[in-house]
Amino acid sequence: MPEGHTLHRLAKQQNERFADRPVRVSSPQGRFAAGARIVDSRVLERVTATGKHLFASFGDALVHVHLGLYGGFTSGPSPAPEPRGALRMRWENDDWWTDLRGAPTCEVLGPDEAATIRDRLGPDPLARRASGEAAWARISNSRAPIGVLLMDQRVVAGIGNVYRAELLFRHGIAPFRPGRELSSDEWTPLWRDVMALMRAGVRSGRIITTRPEDRPRGRVDRDDAFYVYQRAGLPCRICSTPIRTEPMADRNLFWCPTCQTM
DNA sequence: GCAAAATGTCAAG
DNA sequence: TTGACCTTTTGCA
Known about the structure:
- By secondary structure, the chain is an alpha+beta fold.
- Helix 1 (4-18) packs parallel to helix 7 (184-204).
- Strands 2-8-9-7 form a 4-stranded antiparallel beta sheet. A 4-stranded antiparallel beta sheet has the order 4-5-6-10, sandwiched between helices.
- The chain has helices spanning 4-18, 33-39, 111-119, 133-139, 146-149, 161-170, 184-204, and strands at residues 21-22, 24-26, 43-44, 46-50, 53-58, 61-66, 72-77, 89-92, 96-101, 105-109, 244-248, 251-255.
- The longest helix is centred in the last third of the chain and has 21 residues, at 184-204.
- It is built from 7 helices and 12 strands.
- The structure holds a DNA duplex.
């Protein structure tokens, strides 16, 4: 499921498999039928991820996909399986297929409309030459809690509920602290960390935030991947205090009340 | 077999 | 601020 690393990984894979040649685009479910007709059989130039948005350019028409909470792509080598369920969009060439389901957004845009969406976003830690300065400018001037600011795509593009909780834990910062009460000595390592964690996420295809010394050796199973996310009531890996949860910015926030300070 | 939850966002009021 | 929306998986009976 999708935070920024998922979309960048998808862009990379789709470029490898589909870019620079024609793609058959269809919408077996029908909801994207009109859009599919516009780009069907055209050459796919490039797939780009910005934050949690995916843009596939076919000349002056771009397919814009946002996976929301539960959208997802599946894919594999040809031949494609018989369409099943609510299959919003399918891409096929002679070698590969990929299917999109569940996405709230799958639409054809012009270049200006795509630019408008990108312009609304804060810096993407996975972008080339990413800089956290614009994000820091907003955070250091805001009295909103840092746990809200990190989820705001205008502040940083690509962070979701898992990275939010885990980053704040890794830096010992209570989610309730107003942005303006962070010091730049806290922000600088946090920004460096989000770039590194998300890059690792792109590489492995999953989010792992525990340091090797804080988890059992060997393969990382789901129970050992996080410090706080979805661990409400379980003992903190560092101090054994029960992990707390409560909604913040409409999502369930998780934190350790001992390790994360105001 | 059904309800609830899940790594998200936007429009309506 | 609230509700709508998209689909699959999980947990409980």
